[in-house]
Amino acid sequence: MRRSALIAFLLLSSPLALFGQKLTYEIRFHGAIAGKDTFTIKKSKQGYDVSTQYSYAIGSSEGHFANEYRLDDAYQWLQASSNNQTLAIRYVDTVDKTRTRLHISITQNGAGSNSELPVRPDLELLPSLDPAAAQILLLRATTHPTQNGKYNIVAPSFGEPEAMASLNSVRDGVSPAALATMQLPSSRESYDAAWQKGADVSGTLNGKPVAAHVYLLIFGSFRWVFLADDDSTLLQMNVLPRQPVFVKQGFALNPQAVEALSANP
């Protein structure tokens, strides 16, 4: 029993297999590959540093982003710096030491604004539609779960009807000015979110069979579906009820799993 407890502790406290690797994801809209996302997670003095870059091109709309995230040793957010290189907008979200306030800074072309948002200790940030942010949530939820499966999610206003309309318009090749498909809205919303475990599905990773654990994050009008391997490495992320889908390079769901997720995500 003591040996088992020690092994369990080491698994939770040691860097997982994904650390230090460069992970690559395809960005898909309505089944078509529209871009690519890469990120790395590295150990740092305060905990972990995450660097992510992604870009997309859909019809006449395109975007390029470079984000930097800072975490403590328990995968809790310290700061998120999100840079929309296409529109020269920079967002910096900083959690205060009491973990009760989120400081939000937005700058563009020399002009800026600052605001604060009250938050709870179970805070999780989703600064953008970004697999790196999803990976951070996976690490936190699987190694340090809350007792009731609830989280305080702070994210751009993904649930707003305007954002949904912008995402849907991508299918018709329209370049929406309000959201620019992947652009971060200027506003931040605080959501009460539920984290749930779904039924496992199967797929392949680089041609080899792999079991994918399914997790659901429900907030606002959205369901984010996370598929992860045994090391909690993100394999796929679906933003429901619409798009986009992020798929780890080399991963493919089995046809039956695709049908199962579509019927009952």
UniProtKB/TrEMBL annotation:
Instruction: Provide the alphabetized UniProt keywords.
Output: Signal
Q: Span of the secretion signal?
A: 1-19
Protein name, UniProt field:
DUF3108 domain-containing protein
Give the organism the record lists: Granulicella rosea
Species classification: Bacteria, Pseudomonadati, Acidobacteriota, Terriglobia, Terriglobales
